[in-house]
Amino acid sequence: MEKMNKLIDHTLLKADATQDQIETLCKEAKQYDFASVCVNSYWVSFCKEQLKETDVKVCTVVGFPLGAMASKAKAFECANAIEDGAKEIDMVMNIGELKAKHYDAVRNDIAMVVEAAKGNIVKVIIETCLLSDEEIVKASELCVEAHAHFVKTSTGFSTAGANPRVVKIMKDTVGDKALIKAAGGVRSKADLDEMVEAGANRIGTSSGVKLMEGEKSTGGY
User: Fold this and answer.
1) Which residue among the candidates 9, 57, 74, 90 is catalytic per the annotation?
2) Tens digit of pLDDT for each residue in 135-165?
3) Which listed residue (57, 74, 138, 181) is catalytic?
4) CATH code given to domain 4-212
5) Is 65 within 8 Å of 38 (Cβ atoms)?
6) Does 152 participate in catalysis according to the annotation?
7) Is 72 a catalytic residue?
8) DSSP 158
9) Which parts of the chain have pLDDT scores under 70?
10) How far is CA 10 from CA 65, 71, 88, 134, 209, in A?
11) Domain boundaries, the chain
12) Full-prediction pTM beyond 0.90?
């Protein structure tokens, strides 16, 4: 298994996050050499500057947290973030269109962001807590068809986060055609190990420091 630190997207997506908190996030990411920091797009250029001369990437979110934005708006948001220095994009799928079985619309929505990302990594948040198992399978298939790099479980802002059962469904669906990111509710080393065993390749969490220090977090993303 890859070293635990490189599984972690060190995350701060709260609406009231301040520059000081974002700076602390970056300092922690440098200290523990996490895979990335995951922040709202306003902070991308700031984080790029904070993380220069490290291999910690800047990840940002697009169409977050609802996914019901216009596809053109998502693509523009993605392109702007890439220009500002983001190397990874976590976009939210159009969940309502998936439930309505408007699969071309869902696929095209993802594909527009993938194109705007210009070869940088795109992870698609399918918000598994709002989907049936059959919808999780279909959403995962559509992500592969649209050439996304990852399928991601959750925003952390809906009714529930990740769990190993849905991670396994996603992994069984995509096989080696995409990677899996589990996010929301991963607060202990045991949680992380369960997600990885189920098939997760990346973990989104605000508890990265506590995970590295062997503690358990009591809340947060």
Assistant:
1) 90
2) 999 999 999 999 999 999 999 999 999 999 9
3) 181
4) 3.20.20.70
5) no
6) yes
7) no
8) S
9) 1-2, 217-221
10) 17, 27, 13, 30, 8
11) 4-212
12) yes
